[in-house]
């Protein structure tokens, strides 16, 4: 039976390079970056099989991977939409109206925070401070920051992403031009 | 060798001794309570914060006090250090605060918990807790997870002491469980339901300070204070084979490791007396064992109350018989010495 | 105009590239360090400069460096803390995004001073695109012989790597950061031992903030004494301030320490006053963890002196009437701001970010958030305010790492200075609409009505 979880040779080369950054025997250090790669490669989330595969690649036990993957908020342990709209909700963003952005998105997409649209295109996720307080309110989609948001800008962003077949991932820049 | 003074009592201890170990050397009256520290497990301690003490003098050389309370289990003594534990009102209040934190999300299901009677959280709550809660929100509940046919996991009761994780790392050959998620919802789990089952996995039950990990084969069989602990041993090729059998009548309901005065697995032949799963789960007949004699149980433990209760029952029976006898006649019993009123006999 | 040491060339087009950075004098300091200074001389310059950690704690950098153990045959590490996650703080991102080479130059000079041959920049996962900018800049430096073997012919070797995190505020705590760099959960370690003795892989390690390491460049360039001339008292040099909230010109500003707060808020050179002509109500001056101050106490100290932006100036009056410089995350709130609601967003943040290792923080942060939510939505009682106060006091100073304090201080200061506002919420109640929203976003069952 063909194994579903397998990095492509190109990805494996990237992973090997990551491992080489650390002293011999400390390959576990590469776990966080390799999980990002795995999440990008395997449909935007980390299934237990994907994590077992990462454990195998790094020669560590599966529980070590589960412990780490479940600790950090950027790893999705359940399937998510192609475009995860991560809206910051902490102080400065809240002061500048992030609640309105979230409500607007919820209404526009017909889903609630934490949910995914039926077509699998969007997920709304409220997150804590993303270090963009001077350009609040803001949201992150994949690697890209969308700052100084207004409801109109959010509309344009959603329209631009609506029919985009490409999954937004942290590991590459895919910024949508909204001008 | 550094000298340290704890609650006014000075003791000389080997270099590298922690405040907590020094306090234990003095005795239980000054030893801070521990929920996560376990002297038999490396790197344990520091998490629960119940053993916080005040260092009112850092050392002879640098007598400045430490600015904040410190975890006595992870702080080494310095020569001339002065520590306040029970003598500090501030520490008593801090400890009461920690106990409250440990209890806000605890289900308080002692009436149906197998650990009741030998639960360190119960003891701690009794000594430092308040009689009512100030927490008026729903308590945290975790999804139930099945981790095999030998060990029962009740995550709602867990206080995240990490002892079981360290036991799996240090005592068993493969750890399959760990702490998942983070913060308030962090939990002990195997993630996907795997059974924790290798030769020494049962030791996680003995190190758990609460009822989060209990013996499935003993589940709901009896309250511990109705059982009678007896020390026994057998030749075992996997472990030391020195155990404690918990009897009810003639039945062995449960097998555990032997515990020392601090509630930790006792040493045997200079090594920690961890026991294997065969001894723990599969040897439940008296004929499997050589009996060493009744276990020593602290008279403060509710388990020992059972023994006194039998005495009370005996005394009551004597009193009843006395009352039934014609005036002036004495009751003669083979075990007359048991009756404290019988001295004149 | 205040003196600029880090952002002097921020407006130069192409300053992100190695070429332009070098045209503006970049890597001259590295050359100076490698060719004319010993590692100990650099450490001395940093000590003389009076530079203090720019990540929030303000510990003297030179002293931290001098604690580094140097056992034979054991590698030493320098790790840059680019996990900037303190709400209100975005200066490191700005610096790394626009002038990545100043950080890289600082890393090489500092690594040389500390005797490290491998160094890491640990950057928060959300800054993935900044990590790519850094990696590109590092590649440029390798290609130019500024990294790798025998840097600038000096015989000194250094490898520099970028490690991304994955979403955890706690990894800004230096030992949690090291755990994360080792591929583990970001659980802070129990200290001692400190990283200077046993850090990354158990080896002696220094962890410094991005801005701290960048500041080493001007210090070594012009000498520690020249740096110490800038600023005020023990607050030497310049500091990057992240200004956000209700300000006309939010953004990152480099100030000379000792600048009056009033000038920072109202002058055109800096924030240009409060948005929409409103009045200032309160300021969180050093990132979400530091005590919030009402307008009158942030502009002037309790004794009526102008309050200055420096370590000592902002903490003047202790916690009773002062605050802290912290990470320099300056959040201004106008007259219409609900202090209670802002506090709730902070408490929710700490609840979300607690690692869960030690009991007071794990249980206390959630409890505080729930009580605040209850008060905010009109279901609180006056005794809840006292309870909040009591809970924060039982977290503060009782936890493994400073996150407990960070969660406690905002609550304590908000009650200290704005108790009346909590009481108003208790008395007046609030619209039911928000309650429903809360239950929904937190996936709680909604109570009937």
Can you describe this structure?
Chain A is α+β, with helices and mostly antiparallel strands and 179 residues long. Helix content of chain A is 39%, strand content 10%. Chain A has seven helices and four strands, in the order H-H-H-H-E-H-H-E-E-E-H. A four-stranded mixed sheet of chain A has the order 2-1-3-4, with helices on one face. Chain A is elongated and about 50 Å long. Chain B has four domains: 3-98, Roll (Ubiquitin-like (UB roll)), CATH 3.10.20.740; 136-218, Alpha-Beta Plaits, CATH 3.30.70.20; 224-294, no CATH class; 302-342. Chain B starts with a strand and ends in a 21-residue tail after the last helix. Residues 333-345 of chain B have low confidence and may be disordered. Chain C is globular, with a radius of gyration of 23 Å. Chains in contact: A-B, A-C, B-C. Chains A and C meet through helix 2, helix 4, helix 5 and helix 6 of A and helix 7, strand 3, strand 7, strand 13 and helix 15 of C.
Q: Please outline the major beta sheet of chain A.
A: 4 strands, mixed
Query: CATH topology of the largest domain in chain B, which one?
Result: Ubiquitin-like (UB roll)
Number of domains of chain B: 4
* Helix content percent band of chain A: 25-40%
Strand content of chain B: 15-25%
Q: How much strand content do the residues of chain A show? A: 5-15%
CATH topology of the largest domain in chain A: Glutaredoxin
